[in-house]
Structure formats: structure tokens, C-alpha cells
Amino acid sequence: MKIKRLSYGIMALFFALLLPFLSSCSDNGNKDKVISVAEDDPDMTAAISKSRSLLPQFWQVFYYREHGETDFSLKVKITDKGKAEHFWAVNVERKKGKIFGTINNDPEIVHNVKIGDRIPIPDDDISDWLYMQNGKMVGNYTLRVLFKQMPANEVEKYKAMLANP
Length: 165
Hints:
Blueprint: E1 3-7, H1 10-18, E2 34-38, H2 42-53, H3 55-63, E3 70-80, E4 83-95, E5 98-103, E6 118-120, E7 126-133, E8 136-139, H4 141-146, H5 152-161
Parallel strand pairs: 1-4
Antiparallel strand pairs: 1-2, 3-4, 3-7, 4-5, 5-6, 7-8
């Protein structure tokens, strides 16, 4: 059975929020926690499907920021030699029908990207999205699936950050 890895995403989001204040893209010793999830995990498949179905909402808010929304990020599936890993991409940009973002976490499985790489993002490889609104995180549906594998204190901390836990 193939395994793909998904980072909690929260650490990546915090890193994204701190990027303007840092002089480089080093991880400064902060390592994302990684959870392995089966490629065919039904809960993760459903979360990715939900996220993708709501992607038009993400783009609507991305273009028309009416309530101070910030920190738009896309989770993108990167494959390398038959293996897959999901990364948060920040500094999202959409021009001439193409999407671009900057890899925001260190790879654990694939070796064809690294933190700080600016990459094109094929629409079909988007597995999740998020943005901040009024201090709360909107989106990040794949994180919720990982709650069943996290310690209760971490789950409560992350739920408190979500607009709709």
C-alpha cells in the first residue's frame, strides 16, 4: 500500500505568518510533525474532495478580500519517483491562468523540491487550501482528519485556531 505524508500544516502556517519577519527561509530548528496516511484513506480522500469542491470559495476570497483575509496558502501534492508528499505553498499567485507558490516545508519523502522553491501548481495537484480571517483559519480540511492521530491537547489547540472546527 502506498503511503503519502501530510504535515500538520499548522507549523507551516506559523512559518508562513513569520516569513516577512525572517531574513531567510531556513526552518530555524522548527520541524513539522509528519503523519503518514494511507494513499486510499477514506477520511483523507473525503477531506481532499471537500477541499477541492470548495476551491472556488478560496479563489473568490483571494481576489475579493472584503474582511481582511490574509496568508493564503495551498497544499499541493508533489510526486517524485512514484512517491508522494503534500506541501504547503505560500505567496500564492495566479497569473495568465497559471498558479504559483513557494514551498513552505522541508521534504521528508520526495527530493525534487525544497523549502523556498517557487513552483508552478497544477490545479489537479491541489489537495487543500487555507487563509486567515479575523484571526481564525478558514479551510485546512486535511488537518481535521489528522486529529484522530494527534494527542488531545494538540487537537484542542488546533481546533481553537479554526474558524469552523
